[in-house]
Amino acid sequence: MFITLEGPDGSGKTRQIHPLADFLTEQGYEVFCGREPGDTFIGEQIRQVLMDHQNKGMHPRTETLLFCAARAQLVEEIIRPHLAQGHVVLLDRYADSTLAYQGYGHQNDLGLIRKLLDFATGNLWPDLTILLDIKPEVGLRRRQEGGGEWNRMDAYQLQYHERVRNGYLKMVAAEPQRWRVVNADQSPDVVQSELRDLLLSYLSNLS
Questions:
Q1: Residues annotated as binding site for ATP?
Q2: Are 104 and 60 in contact (CB under 8 A)?
Q3: How far is CA 52 from CA 7, 47, 98, 154, in A?
Q4: Thymidylate kinase-like domain location, by residue (predicted)?
Q5: Which domain holds residue 181?
Q6: pLDDT averaged over 10-residue windows placed end to end, the chain, 207 residues
Q7: Is residue 104 assigned to a domain?
Q8: Residue 53 covered by a domain
Q9: For 8-160, where are the E strands, in sequence order?
Q10: Model pLDDT, residue 157
């Protein structure tokens, strides 16, 4: 089972995913919990390049290809082997992030990006994707006030982040069978509770 968390910056994915993975483990599932880009030696190097403020001159096509390169490595080195063993793979971001950020955000050709993503992932898409939805201005304020990572992409203009969020909502509307939406503008405990209930319901219906 391949499950991804998506959402605008500051939606709380990174804060929520590890307690969620621990909860699923307690329920008896074998879980791999990871993030994008990263989790492989190659992917972590690419992440440093992507997030570094010194790389403000990076072209959107360069950005897109780097994310896809890190993802291709993650799919073949980690995700597919875990899925082959029957594990639950729980990932903080995946291919939908590229559609949202490099597609809708940068206003690039969505059809071309989808083809690139199919190539990079070997046509591997999640079984379930949960959108932690939050208004961009709220999420970005959280990032600034939280003292965590403030990277090159966080610093894009608000209009860019608004396009990203709207892109996510369009993807939800286009593929409702795969997507679920959780309001991330709630307390972390409430969001975690809703995530747990959602996953337990989803997984139990598969049994």
A1: 7-14
A2: no
A3: 21, 8, 18, 11
A4: 5-194
A5: 2-35+83-149+158-206
A6: 96 95 96 96 96 90 97 98 98 98 95 98 98 93 70 75 97 97 97 97 85
A7: yes
A8: no
A9: 31-35, 88-92, 128-133
A10: 81
115 within a domain of the structure (yes/no):
yes
d(CA 72, CA 66): 10
Amino acid at site 205: N
Specify the amino acid at residue 165: R
Q: What is the CATH number of the domain that holds 136?
A: 3.40.50.300
Query: How many residues can be counted in the chain?
Result: 207
> Six-digit token pair at 59?
């072209």
d(CA 36, CA 39): 7
First-to-last alpha carbon distance for the chain, in angstroms, is 12
Q: Measured between alpha carbons, how far is 176 from 88 in angstroms, rounded to an integer?
A: 21
Asked whether residue 70 is domain-assigned, the answer is no
- A 10 A CB-CB count for 108 gives 18
Rounded to two decimals, the pTM is 0.92
Contact indicator for 13, 142 with CB cutoff of 8 Å: no
Which pair of tokens denotes residue 155? 């610093």
Give the residue ranges of the annotated binding site: 7-14
Count of structural domains, the chain: 1
The two most distant CA atoms of the chain are separated, in Å, by 49
Q: 67-122, pLDDT tens digit by residue?
A: 999 999 999 999 999 999 999 999 999 999 999 999 999 999 999 999 999 999 99
